Structure formats: structure tokens, C-alpha cells
Amino acid sequence: MANLANLYDVSKCTACRGCQVACKDWNQLPAVIEPFKGNYQTHEDTNGDTFTIINFFEYEDPVDGVRWNFIKRQCMHCLDPECMKVCPRQAYTKTSWGATLHDPDKCIGCQYCAAACPFDIPKYRKREDVITKCTMCADRVEEGLTPACARTCPSGALTFGDRDELLQKAEARAKFLRANGFPRATIYGRVELGGLNNLYVLTDTPDMFGLPVNPKVSGNITFWQDWIQPYFGWLIPLMLTASATSFVTSRILASKHGEHGEHGEGGHE
Amino acid sequence: MSPAFGRGVMTNHIVDLKNTDCALIMGSNAAENHPITMKWLFKAKEARGAKLIHVDPRFTRTSARADLYAPLRSGTDIAFLGGMVKYIIDNELYHKDYVVNFTNAAYLIKDEFEFKDGLFSGYDAEARKYDVKSWDYKTDDAGMALTDPTLQDPRCVFQLMKKHYERYDIDTVCKITGTPKDKYLAVLDTFCATGAPNKVGTIMYAMGITQHTVGSQNVKSFSNVQLLLGNMGRPGGGINALRGENNVQGATDMALLFHIIPGYIDSPMNSVAHKDLISFIRAVTPGAGKLPFTNLEEFRELVKAGFPNSGWKIHSSKWVVSLLKAWWGKAASKENDFGYHYLPKRDEKKNYSHIAMFEAMYKGEIDGLFINGSNPVVGGPNANKELEAMTKLKWMVSIDLWLNESADFWTHQAWERAVDNPNVAKISPENIGTEVFFLPAAAVYEKEGTAAQTGRWVQYRWKGAEPVGESKSDLWIYNELVKKVKKVYEGSKRPEDEPIVNMTWDVENEHGHDDPIKVANELCGYSTVDGKPVEGFAKLMDDGSTACGCWVYCGATTLKDGKFIYKPQLRDNKDNSKTGMGLYSNWGWAWPVNRRIVYNRCSVQPDGVTAWPGDEDRMLVRWDPLALADPKKPESLGSWVGDDVPDFIKTVGPSNPAFTKPFIMRPEGHGCLFAAKTSMKEGPFPEHYEPWESPTLNTLNSQVLNPATKVWEPEKQSKSEQYPIIGTTYRVVEHWQTGALTRNLPWLAELMPNMFVELSEELAREKGIKNGQNVIISNTRGDVEAVACVTKRFKPFQINGKTVHEIGLLWQYGFKGFATGDTANWLTPHVGDANTMIPEYKAWLCDIRRA
Ligand code: SF4
Ligand code: SF4
Ligand code: SF4
User: Fold this and answer.
1) Which of A11, A42, A180 shows the shortest C-beta gap to B750?
2) What CATH number should be reported for the domain holding residue B222?
């Protein structure tokens, strides 16, 4: 089966966040009401009960004046997903059509995937001690429906379909935008990390939307993957509280958060 | 818009936005409040390279998607648009053929008419009113207006207009509006380019335009711009009044306003001019004033022969009599003036709008109040006062989904304030004697019926779920209520009870259930002879043989093979236009007579057959000399035809002088740049006046406030020395109106959890306010606590050489639900538009400090 993908065109997103609500509705996720902090964004980041979020970036361009960029974030359904590689319990699988699925029944809450994901997507849900994330609405797609977020988007920013076709569409769109006031318009997800199943049309360079320009798998992860996991992976469940493991884990998590701090700043409203 | 074109409606429709070459969004935050419009605008951008302009005090989610954003200070739209009119005329960017043939630009105006220092002729300062005698056309002996098609006569509308706006040069305008000059020029350049015959531009507006003391004249300014540019009545053009609620159009069609009865007919008053049916018909039929008739028979003959300056409203008598027949059935007969005296008459000298009603309530003049799907404690202007006014009621009925703030106005919470203020009442529940009834209402998906959306499409909605608990549909509630009321009056012989005793009430179907289709049948009209639907309002009669609850809805019902069809239920999603204009004429039904774009006669050249040069694909209708107006009559050769229903009398051909009069609802038949006679309370041309509370003087004339508007509470004016900051209010996409619905839904509460105020970084620095901190906003009417949202998207204005700050508050919060916060309307004033009394929510003064 061909790869199916979600194409998100920032130039058509009005940040209405219908997608956020539709996602919560379909996946029956409770509201996480946090006080307003001087920013339209609902939460700092996705969380155990929030699979997708619109991020807001406000900045002043010396030429264009004030700009307000929005971007929808959720699992990218990477063609070659890091989360899957590091999971000691094989909780992650890839569907034939491209979704990266996570099975909470297998999950032990170790959060290695959270550390490994270049997009900071898997989130820990404390009350059940499991990781959660966007499912690409696999339960809908397998019944012939489009994902809830794409289904609800009123402005036409989200389109679901065949990845190759969407890529062509995205290229054409970026070209149009470059000729119409957005010289730096580009697409994202075609080649990044070997390709993503969530494609983006951006009106500016990826960093202006908080996306890693050259997403890379961290050195620690490679080390983990190549050396530790093959030999010690089976020990993890037994040793979860053991100091050696938690030392490695917290090192990985710490290094990830450091990185996030850097590209998380700058222009965040 | 009615004074310019004859109808006060969104002229085009939402899908049509895809046909535009340029959209000017002003006084609207479309992305937040009408998100679906963005979809069609994006299509216009993609397919036609259309440009999107957003003019707003603050950079919003709409601005983020616009090609061009220009800030302007709240309440200065007339200056902005007056400058645009001048720019169009000076640079000859107007669509000449259109202006000469389709507008009243060539009409000559009486010599007595003049304008001096902000006042038009005829002003009575004491009454704050105009005598409008001089605001009229010069006429010949037959009463027809004199014209100069060369537009050179100094007394012609075009020349008078040119002169009027001479003062609105770019520098003057920018000093008033605070718009940076380069941005203003860019807007002028981009939008006025649509004056080219092959280009069409649209204007989208909403409450940011109407909720001002000069709201109606703001809209009139749009009308002038669009008429000059030749953008009316054409696909991708028009003035699109985006309605604040999904069924506001329906509500106004049904006359949920005090000054009209259904179908936009003036409501009768207790004056001599309205003393009986024939006087009333004389008063509401344009051109009938001085005609010799004393009864309906004589009048009918005159109508048949036609009389000047009447337009389509010449048929008003048919609409009025059919309405009376619908309401009083058999009891409405020729002998009793069809029950005209049953109609309540309003006091000629009284105003019954929202502000006036609450002022009267405050004075204890009102005993009881029904609140349906409304929440004045949050949404009303000067809400502290309105809250206090409600304590003077003997009883109140709230019909809503939730116990909203108005239903619970008597609780402790309703009176809690962050700051103790001697000017703000604090009443405790034991001192409130109002008896409150709460009737739980069904939500929109739990009931059936139609909603008339902003583009006049009436669409039927079927029930999706059963109502929760004891909640009931509005029709059920009112059906039960009326049945009980009628029971109380049953058998009464008192003449004053006749209106209730004789009122028809036929909303139940054969199973004894209240049924929206029964309501539809009355609304859309039926023959009183055989009960069959009336096929269109041209077939309504004033002899009692037809009944119709709202003439503009006539034609929405029909019989097909003996089956009753209600057209709002039609669901054919094929575009019936040949050039892909997106008319979707068989999806739902649009009033009038399923016309999707009104004034569409303008989409073709004055000759009626040629498309505007280079614009062949956007021609909606045309004159076909070989078509039959009536297929059954071979002699009826020549007819208007097209993809849309022609907004024109089908048989009016080139030999008829009315052939180039496309605005059939206007007595003149032409689009009015000059609003003659009683059209507008404050003058035939829009003139800039400052808001009631303004940080600056008016530099264009020595009037400060709109000279025709009423000031209710002069003592409550916030002065700029003490309150130097402009306050405005608005909504966000995440909450619906007063939030009574959405703040009770956790997923929506999550998106916008608290009341906040947006302010510039500059003002925040000046006041020592940090992003996310709590602040207090105050003025003479109250104090509001909110979270500060310090943003680059608000910028201080340079007004007449001074730095002026503006802040914006969400008005959607109250003390109930999951998302709570103070009510911004505690700060908004009791002052409104001179014509409509729509409250000034958008420009007032205040100050802000750290909490
Ligand atoms: S629903 Fe569509 S327009 Fe709205 S925030 Fe999501 S992606 Fe953007
Ligand atoms: S975005 Fe992260 S969680 Fe999603 S597939 Fe890629 S690596 Fe896994
Ligand atoms: S694809 Fe489904 S799970 Fe993923 S963000 Fe969209 S709605 Fe949520």
C-alpha cells in the first residue's frame, strides 16, 4: 500500500485550532486547562492528553513588519522512526500505509522514545504510566475516513492523501508562494530524516516555525541503539529502578532537553 | 446599505468570495469570527492571484494571512474611506460607465443643500436632529430628478461628493487614523485598482464597522467606494456584511428589531400618518405620499399604472395585507382593515433598542423580560448598569442551554469585583426581588428548522440528537406558551383582547407535534382560497386572497407532483453556473427568490447584453431579446436570463427607461452615492466625527461627536485627561458570543481559558506591565481585571502629532463555566449609532495598571 500522508500548508492555517479539538474529540482526550500565560498557545508543548498543538511565533521582520507564524505539531510519522528503534518493548509498529503506532499495552513508561524523537512528540501520561502520541487516526483511516484533524480543518490547510501526490502538490504550492510574497517558502518532510509522513508547506525557513532545520538523531541515541540496546535491552524491564539504567536514561533526557531549550527560544510569543 | 442599494443585506455570499480579485477586510476579523470565509479567499488567492487586505487596529489572525496589513485607530473608518473616495476621484480610478449609468452621480441636488464645518443644512442643535428637506434632488414638473450625465454640473452628486471629500487628503487622513502613510498608500493603490472594468473587489465587514456612533455611515462609506469602483452586483464584489451569529440574517428577516415588521417594512407608530391601513400603506410605499387615493381599490389602479420614484416597494400593500392575513386569518377582512389595528403601534417619540430598553428597565418602567439565547449581563454595553437594571424587574425568564450569567444575575458571584468602586452597585441576593424562571433549551443539533446564514442562504437543519434531559426546542416552548396564553383569553369579548383571541396559531402537524414545516408554510405564503403555496412574492395580493408571514421568504415553498417541497431542504451540491462561479442554486434556498447575488443586473454593461470588457466569465444575467418571459405566451418576447435569478423585472427591455436602473429596491432605481431625504440621520455623505470618548479633537470639522446621535448618560463620559487610552472589544475564534455555550465546554475552555487584554510592548513598558501579569482596566463605568497579553501586534498610534495607545479586551467572559473572567462590557458606554442605536462597543476610553 502506498504511503498515506497529511499535508499541512501554513499559508492556509488561521490557527483556529479546530484540529486540536477534533483530535481530542476523536481520541476522547480530556481537556488540560492551564491558565492563560500571555500567549495564545494552549500549552508549552503537546502532552499526555494533547496529541497535537498549534504553536505561535510572533516576531518583527525588518522588511515585512510584524509576522505571526502558526504551525501544527503532532507526530511526523517518520518513514524511519527513531522512537521505534529505541523502544525496548517493541511497543512501536509501522502500518503498511505509513503510520507509526504505539501500543500502550506493551509500553512500560520508560520514555526512551520521548528522548529519541527528534520532534519531541511522545509524551508521558502519568496516570497510566504510558507514553501517548498522535495515531494518525489509524482507526479512522483503516475504515476509509480521513484523520479527524484534516476532516475538520475549515480553511483547507490540512489535506490527507497519497504521499507522492501530496508532495507534488506541496512543491507547486511552495513555488507559488515563492513567487507571491514569500521568497523563502519551502517544503518540509520530503527528505528530512529520510522522509516524514507529515508534510509541510512553509512560508519561511523551518527555524522560523521552531522546526529543526537538519533534524538529526542525537549521538547518545546512536550509542544507545548500536551498543546498549542490543545487549541490555531485555534487562530494562527488570532493572527499571536500577541506578545504571536510570543514569543512562536521565543523561539522554537531559541532553535532549538542553537542545530543546536552544531552539525553543527566539520569537516565541 | 439600504439607503445606497435598497436592501441591508450581504450582497454576495460566502462561496462567491472565491471570485474576487481583491478583498478588503475592514472592521472584521474574518479568520476568527467567520473562519469559513478564509477557505474561499484562499481559493481566490490560489486561482486568481487575489490580494487580501486587512485594516484593523491590531494585527490579528486575519492579518497574519493577509497580503497587506494597515493599522487604523478604532472609530476612524470614515476618514480612512473618505480619503479613499478622494483618491479614486482625483486619480480617475472610478468605473466611469458604471458610475454614470448605475448610480445617482449625475443627479442634481437642491440649491438649499449645503455642508459647513461638519454640519449639513437643516440642523437643529437642541433636538440633535436634522430637517432633511434640502437633502433632495432637483426635479422636473413630473417629479423626476434632473441629471447631468457629463457629471460636470457643480450641483450634481458627483461634483458635490468631490467637493465634500476635498479635505480628506492623505496626510490629514493618516494623522486622524494613525495609519502609516506608506501602508495607507499601499491599500489605496491595491484596492482602487479594482475600478478597472475587468477587476472586481469585495469588502468584508462586521461589528468593527457597525458598533460605533457612526456605524451606519461607516457602511455608507463602503457603499460609496464600491459604487465608484463599479464593484456592486458582480461576482467577487459587493459589500459583505458578515453576520455576528449564524442566524442573525434570519432574525432580522423575522423583524427581531423594534423599527420593522417582517420583511423590512417600517413598524407602525401611534402617529396620524399610520392611523389606519390606507394611511400606513401611503406612508410605507415610496412615491405614494401625495397620490390621490382613499381606499385600496383606487390604490391598486394607481399601482397597476405605475407611479414614479417607487421602485419594487410599490408592492408594499400586498406584503402588508398578506402579513395581516397570516397573523389573523379569517378575522382579518376588508371590513376591519385586515386587522391593521391589531398590530401594536410603537410610540413615535420612543426608542426601543437595546440601550433604550435597559435604560427604561433601570428606571423601573419594565416589569418582565424574556431572554432567549442572549446574555446581556456579559454582552450588553455598560453591563454593570444593565445588571443593576435587571434587579428592577418583577420577573425574568431565561431560555438557554446553561444557567448563564444572566440567568444567575442575582447570585453573589454576579456582583463580585476586583476593585471596590463607589460608582458600581453591589447588591446582595436577599435584596433582589426579581423572580427568575429558567427554561432549559435544546441545542442547535437537538432541534429542527432553518437558519439563514450571512449570505441569505436559508438552510434546513435536521435533528442530530435528542435534547438532553428536560430541554426543549424553542418552537416547543413558544407553542406551549402561546397555547396557554390563548387559553387565558379564550371567550373574551373585550375588543382589546381581539389580537390574541383572533390570532392564528397553526404550528402543530397531524400528529399534534409542533412542526417547523408548519411555520415555514405560513412564513412563505399560501393561498387563503385553496391553501396552496404562493409561488413567489410577485403573486402576493392585497385583497386577502394570500397570506404570507414574511414576503421576502415567499417562493421557498412549492408543490411538485402534489408533494409539498420546502426549498431550504434542497441539497444538490453541483454548481449550476457555466463558468464555475459557485452559485449552487439548488443547495438550500436564498432570499429573495433564490437570488444568490443581489443587484446582479450590474454584472452586465448598461446595454444589457455585453459583458464588462475582459470579464466574460463573471456575467450573471443578460437581456435576451429572443427569450420568452413567459414560456406559455409567445408574445412575451424578450427576457432577462442567466445562471442567477435576475435581480430585475424580467420583462423590462431596452425600450423601457428603467432598463439601466439596476437597484430596483431604491425609489430612484440607482445606487445612491448621495443618500437623499430621510435615508440617513446624520447626512447624505459620511463625514468623520470622533467617537463619544476620544483622545483627540476632530481636525476635519468643529463637531466632535456625530451631531445626530443621542447621548444617554453625559455624566458617564470618560475624559482623555484621566483615561487617555483607547479601549476596544472583540472576540476570538475559540469562543462563541458571550461564551455561554463555549465556556461550558472543556475542550474550548482549554483553548482560551481566561479573560485577557492585549496591549503593545511600548505601553507595557510605560506602565511596568509584564506579559502574563494581572492588570486592572478602569474608566467611569467600572473596573475589569484581566491577564496581560503584551504583544508586538498592537502598536501605539501617532494621532495629530501625539502618541496614543489602544488596548483590546475580549468581551466573551463572565463568572460561569470552565473558562471564567471579568466582563469587558462593564467598561463600554451607553451610546450608539444615530440610525440603528447599535452600541459603541469598539471605541471608548480607559486606563490600565498592574493589579
Ligand atoms: S484546523 Fe486547520 S486552520 Fe485550524 S488550526 Fe488546525 S490546521 Fe490550522
Ligand atoms: S515524530 Fe517522533 S514519535 Fe513520531 S514517528 Fe517520528 S520519531 Fe516517532
Ligand atoms: S491524525 Fe488524528 S491523532 Fe493525529 S493529530 Fe490528527 S486527529 Fe490527532
Assistant:
1) A42
2) 3.40.228.10
Per-residue pLDDT tens over the stretch B390-433: 999 999 999 999 999 999 999 999 999 999 999 999 999 999 99
> In the block, which residue shows the cell 472592521?
B27
pLDDT at B607: 96
Q: Quick one: which ligand is closest to B32's CA?
A: 1
- Rounded Cα distance between B664 and B648, Å, is 7
Q: What is the SS3 string spanning chain A?
A: CCCEEEEEEHHHCCCCCHHHHHHHHHHCCCCCCCCCCCCCCCCCCCECCECCEEEEEEEEECCCEEEEEEEEECCCCCCCCHHHHHCCCCCEEECCCCCEEECCCCCCCCCHHHHHCCCCCCEEEHHHCEEECCCCCHHHHCCCCCCHHHHHCCCCCEEEEEHHHHHHHHHHHHHHHHHCCCCCCEEECCCHHHCCCEEEEECCCHHHHCCCCCCCCCHHHHHHHHHHHHHHHHHHHHHCCCHHHHHHHHHHHHHHHHHHHHHHCCCEC
The minimal CB distance from A156 to the residues B39, B748, B795 is found for B39
Per the structure, the count of domains in chain B is: 4
Q: Please count the residue pairs, one from chain A and one from chain B, whose beta carbons lie less than 8 angstroms apart.
A: 115
CATH architecture, range A4-217 = 2-Layer Sandwich (3.30)
Neighbours of A183 (CB within 10 A): 10
- A-proximal residues of B, 461-480, CB under 8 Å: none
Q: What is the residue type of A21?
A: V
CA separation for the pair B107, A35 (Å, rounded): 60
CA distance B164 to B848: 39
**List of chain A residues whose C-beta atoms are within 8 Å of the C-beta of residue B762:** none
What is the mean predicted confidence (pLDDT) over A178-194? Answer: 95
Q: pLDDT tens-digit profile of B228-256? A: 999 999 999 999 999 878 888 899 999 99
Q: Does a structural domain hold residue B293?
A: no
ipTM value for the complex: 0.92
Distance of alpha carbon A13 from alpha carbon B820, whole angstroms: 27
CA dist A158 and B383 (Å) reads 41
Could you tell me if residue B421 is inside a domain?
yes
* Distance of alpha carbon A140 from the chain centroid: 19
C-alpha cell at B373: 439565547
Taking the model in full, what pTM does it have? 0.93
Q: Is residue B555 part of a domain?
A: no
Give residues with Cβ within 8 angstroms of B587, minimum separation 6.
B457, B459, B570, B571, B572, B573
Please name the residue that has the C-alpha cell 416547543.
B476
CA distance B240 to B496: 44
Mutating to test ligand 3, I would choose from A7, A8, A23 the residue with most ligand atoms within 8 A of its C-beta, which is A23
Judging contacts by C-beta atoms under 8 Å, the chain B residues touching residue A58 are: 791-793
User: pLDDT category, B630, cuts 50, 70, 90?
Assistant: confident
Residue A220, CA distances (Å) to A86, A119, B8, B80, B522 in order: 11, 16, 67, 60, 75
Task: Determine the average pLDDT of the residues in B795-800.
Answer: 97
Asked whether A120 and A256 are in contact (CB, 8 A), the reply is yes
Tell me the residue type at B616: E
- Of the candidates A33, A68, A269, which has its C-beta nearest B750's C-beta? A33
Contact A15 B818 (CB under 8 A): no
State which of B632, B660, B688 marks the end of a domain.
Answer: B660
- Alpha-helix residue ranges (DSSP H) falling in A68-191: 82-86, 112-116, 138-141, 148-152, 163-179
Q: In this structure, is residue B426 part of a structural domain?
A: yes
Which of A8, A9, A12 should we substitute to test contact with B (largest number of B Cβ atoms within 10 Å)? A12
CB A16 within 8 A of CB B31: yes
Could you tell me the residue range of the domain that residue B738 belongs to?
Answer: 714-850
Q: Are B151 and B145 in contact (CB under 8 A)?
A: no
What pLDDT, in 10s, does the model give residues B808-819?
A: 999 999 999 999
